[in-house]
Structures are given as C-alpha cells and as structure tokens.
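Chapter review: from sequence to fold.
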Amino acid sequence: MELGIIGLGRMGMNIARRLAHANHRIVAYNRSPEKAYALAEEESNVVAVKSIEEIARQLSPPRPVWVMVPAGDATEQMIDALLNILSSGDIIIDGGNSNYRDTMRRANRIASQGLHFVDVGVSGGIWGLTEGYSMMVGGEKKVAEQLRPIFETLAPGADKGWGYVGPNGAGHFVKMVHNGIEYGLMQAYAEGFEILKSKENFHLDLQQVAEIWRCGSVVRSWLLDLIANALSEEQDLSDIKGWVADSGEGRWTVAEAINQDVPAPVITLSLLMRFVSRQDESYAAKLLAAMRNQFGGHEVKSVS
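The token string follows.
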C-alpha cells in the first residue's frame, strides 16, 4: 500500500521507517526537507518531496495522507492546506494528539468537501519502531478497513495492539484517556520508589527491586521495565532535573472527567504534581509556613 506522511519528527520518522521496511511505498514531506531526503536515502521505499502538492501528484487516488504534526494550529493549518490539493474520496489521517473536540469539528468540515477523515491515537514512543505501536482508530469504519494494511504493519501484531473504536473523535478521545491513566501510573511508581529510597538504613538497591517486580509481580508493566533500565544507569538520577512537562492530554482528561461528573482523583492529582515539579519556590508553601508561625508559633526557615 502507498501512503503520504507529513511530519517527520521522531514518531513520524519511525512510522515511515516501519512501513517502508514492510514494503509499503511512502511519500514523505517535512517542513525541513532534508529530513525527508535523508530518510529516502536510508529507505528505498521512501520518496521524498519538497511540497505537499507533490504528495498529491505522487499518490494514486484514493490518496491516504497521514498528518503527524503537533496538535493545534499546526494540524489545523496542514488540514486546510490538504483540503486545497486533495480530491473527493481521498483520506486525511491525523495521527497526532489532537483534542477530540477539534477532531469532530474537522471531520464535519472534511466530509462536507467529499473527503474522509480518520483520527488515530498512537502510543509507543521511541520504542514503536521495533516493538510496534498501539493505535486507537476513529472515523468511518469502512475507511478504517481500507487502511487495515497500514495499521496491521504498524501494530505489534496484525491482530493485536490496534482497533477501530468508533466514529470521528473516538480515536483521539480514547488516546486522551490513555494518557491520563499514564500520568497516574507514572506518579504512583515515582512516589513508591521515592519511599523506598528514603529508607536509607535498608540500603535498598532500587534497580534490583525494579527487576524483582518486573517478573510475576502484580505491578509489572512496560513502565516498570523502563524504570529498571533508567535505574541501571544511575540510581540517584543526579543529572536529571525534577521538572516534568505535560502534553495537554492529561489536562483534557481531567476536564472531561469534570464535564462528565466522573471522579478521577488519581489522574487529577498526578497532573497537579507535574505542576509542582516546575516550581523552584512555592508561594503556597511559604504561605503555609507563615500561617503555622502565626497561629502556633511554629519555626519558619529563612531563605538565607
């Protein structure tokens, strides 16, 4: 099968590689053209182009084009551009972390011009190239079925790790909740290992603990595998600053929980803890100390 791919960040690049390895013909475009041409030199099944107009010329109708650019304005602008060059029956695939509400709105607009839209929530990170990607597919079921050879190639197996989950927006919605759960799992692991580390009189080998838990334990997981790998390099993590970003999907999950009246305290708190990680000085903590001093005469530690 042939596929246009727009956006050769790390994920887009690896998706293109995995498909090319399986003999799919890939027409690749990136805002920085050198990435596309470097990939074409590496992979014989990749054709590099300098413009999205060339993608349309290189593909045979109905043309599937996978957009793998940052969510928000970048995705919006790329879809606008594609609507000017693609034809009725062509397929636009959004594999980024778009807000599902934006996806639903875009789907209506794309359908009004006679094109098809598929939203794919993609999980797998930098390991997807070798391990395969988990994909949550939304859109018209018959169109998703047309793209089956792509999904079967990218997934860990033809019949596992991916699936059609519902109409447009469903793929990105499921991926949003997936990422919210990921926040909670990561926070629980981080807190647990900090408790272990704080028990200094036991002199625990945290990497050994992670390895023990990886096999047979109820808490075994791929995240735990990655923890074991990270701790094998340096247990104190002295070269890493405890500053944690969020991609936006954790926020959207929390907002959706509030809108749906669904209690989600673990996911919500894990998001808030990421905010805490970015504070060099917490004004709230200072005010707490001041209050304790005011009502109880408790000691206040000076900055100096």
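Two observations follow directly from the output. The radius of gyration is 23 Å. The chain has 14 helices and eight strands.
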